[in-house]
Structures are given as structure tokens and as C-alpha cells.
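Appendix B. One record, verbatim.
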Amino acid sequence: MDHSLKNVLVVSFGFLLLFTAYGGLQNLQSSLNSEAGLGVTALSTLYGTILLSSMFLPPLLIKKFGCKWTITGSMCCYVAFSLGNFHASWYTLIPTSILLGLGGAPLWSAQCTYITILGNAHAEKAGKAGKDVVNQYFGIFFLLFQSSGVWGNLISSLVFGQTPTRGFLPDEELQHCGASDCLMATEPTNSTQRPSQELIYTLVGIYTGCGMLAVLLVALFLEPIRDSQQKSEGEKKSPLWSNLLATFKLLGDKRLRLLILLPMFSGFEQGFLAGDYTKSYVTCALGIHFVGYVMICFSATNALCSLLYGKLSQYTGRIAIYVLGALTHFCSIAALLLWKPYPDQLAVFFVFSALWGVADAVWQTQNNALYGTLFEKNKEAAFANYRLWEALGFVIAFGYSTYLCVYTKLYILLGILIVTMVAYGTVECLEFKTQIKPLAKEQTNQAQEEEEMQTKM
């Protein structure tokens, strides 16, 4: 097996195990810990901490400990969050959410930096375009990573499937499901029925074991790697303050300022799926035991599309894939505004989650590849910025989750999507002009040389 591919697979399987646990817990927070809004408050705190840690920690930790040990240490923070869910309360969930938030930004920045370095190094050896190999590697990673949702949600559905649920809900209660859920009406029985503590212990115990396996896998089998650009610059070390401010310095690049909305929208749409679709549509009409099955559909579609987009982008370019993602999300959001969920429309719940997976795979694979390609010389700071703005999207989405009607949140999503695509289109125009100028200059020089040759003759 190719050396670079082996390392991509190790980090991918590590994330698969880790997010089998975390993804399953995140999807259940708004339904499982709904009392006084504990679940969404914990998630909002978590992503708020990720936002703050994104500003300073990733470049510092990656330069100090390298990508491998940054990933390993950050994974331990995720395991702590699983432990906090054994006895979910304000005194256990909020502190462990803060700890996870501190590890979240370095984890993702280190992973993106690691895969980008691997892709560029392999492309240089094989004589291929760096962006194509990086896209392919991110496709493989997100295929395995997104499949974690299948296993995490399958585990939760099988465990909570033992919880008895009420088979019939009157129309009066169903009227408050979907886009019309304003959190002021009486909640349906299905959404308030909490599984037994024994089942919760079983589920959290399985998730904690998965997290520990992830830490061991990466610590034992992932090989340390250094950026060739850093090697060529010698061993000179940047001062501490320079590393801390690297994330903000990169905002001086106009392209990054325009691209801020891409990760922010990613945070908004994932926040809506985890906090609102699971609660106001699935749990409200079907019951908490169906959350896992519906999210399996999302994760499976997301995983397959991630691999597909990684390969397809080599032929279509990234613009066509971004347009596909935007159109899919636009149509899904518009349809959710109009749809009234009923238990007898079971297939529709899965159709929406599948469409969301098709669109989300675009943002996950293409955004990471785009940042790695455009800001190749400042990868750590670029990916730290990515996690910062994505975390801000999550914080806002979870923050207003308990205060706004679902239809208001959907309109906000639509507005952000439109503005995001306009900003992204502007960046592509700037990149096109940047690439055209050297070509035009080269053609002009060739024409001048030909004229000089003809004059001499």
C-alpha cells in the first residue's frame, strides 16, 4: 500500500471511531437533555469554546507538538465529553463541553494540515497536480469520517429502540411539529419520553469505548510528518506571539475575508440538522428512537457523496460541485418550510436527511480542499480560521435554537446560503483573474520575442 494512503486511512479510521461516539451524542442532545435547554446550551458552549480556541491554539499546538500528537491529545478531550454524559447535568456537561471545545479546533486544523501535506508530498513525487491529490485524499477521509454517523446513530437506535413509545399522536400535537414549532406549544409525548438511565449508561459506555480506541489507533499507528516548506526554511522558530496571531494575520487576505461565510454556513446547516430537524421534525412526529435511523441515512449519503465529489472534482472542477450543493440545500430548505410532518410519511423523513447529506458533503470536502489549495503556505492558520468561523455558525445556530420558531431559522439559512454563494463566486473570479494575468504576460513576451526575431531577419 502507498505510504501516504496508509496514513490517510489511519487518521480516517481514528476519526471514524471518535465521531461514532461524538456524532451520536450530538444528535441526541436536544432530545435527550431537553430539560431547561441543557442539551443545546451544552452544544452552544462547546462550539463557543471552539470559536475561542480557533483564534490561538491550532497554529501554536501544531508547531509545538506536530500534527500527530495534536490530534491524539485533542481526541482525549472528546472522550471526556462522553464521560460527562454518564450523569448529564449542568455540572458535568458544561465543563466537559468546554474541554471538548478546547480540543476541537486543534484536532480539525491538525487533521486538515496533515492530509494537505500528505497530498502535496505525494503529488510532487508522482508528478500530479497538488489540488487533485489533496481533493482525492479529503474524499477518502470524509467517506470514512461521515460513515461514523451510520455506526453512531445505529448504536443509539438499537439501544433506545428498547424504549416503549406511544403509537398514536393526535393531530393537535402534530400541528406543532416541523416549521411551525415555536417551542411555546405543549410538546408531544414522544419528544419528552426519556429512555431509562440503564439504557443511557449502556449507550454512553459504548461511545466512550469507541473514543478510547480512536486515541490508541492514532497514537500507535499514525506516523509523524513535517511540512516540506518548513524544512526548506530551516529550523528558525517563530516567536510565540507570532504563532498566536497567525490566525488573525491571515484575515488580511481579501480572499479569506470573502470565504468566511462558507464555513459559517456549514456550521449553521449542521446546527439546524442536529438541533432542529432531529427534534422538531423527527422526534416530534416519530419519537427519539427514530433519530438514529434518520441520521444514518444522512451519514451514509454524506459518506458516499464525499468520495464521489473527491473524484468528480478532477473532471468538473469545484465550481460545478459548489453549485450542486447550493441548489440541493436551497430546494431542501424551501421544502421544509412547506412540509407538515406526519408519522405515516415515514419515507419523507429519510428523503430530507439524504438530500441534506448530498449537500453537506459538498461543504465538507470542497471547503477543506479549497482552503488547503488557496492558502497552501499558511495551512495551519487557514484551517484555524475555517474552524473559527464554522464554530461561530454552530454557536449562533444552537444559541437561538430555543428562542426562534423553526420557520424563522429556515429563512435565516436561506439568506446566509445566498450571500455565501455570492461571496464564493467573487473569490473564484479573483482567482481566475490571477491565473489569467501571468498567461497574458507570457503570451505578450512570446509575441515580442517573435517580432524581434523577424526584425533581425
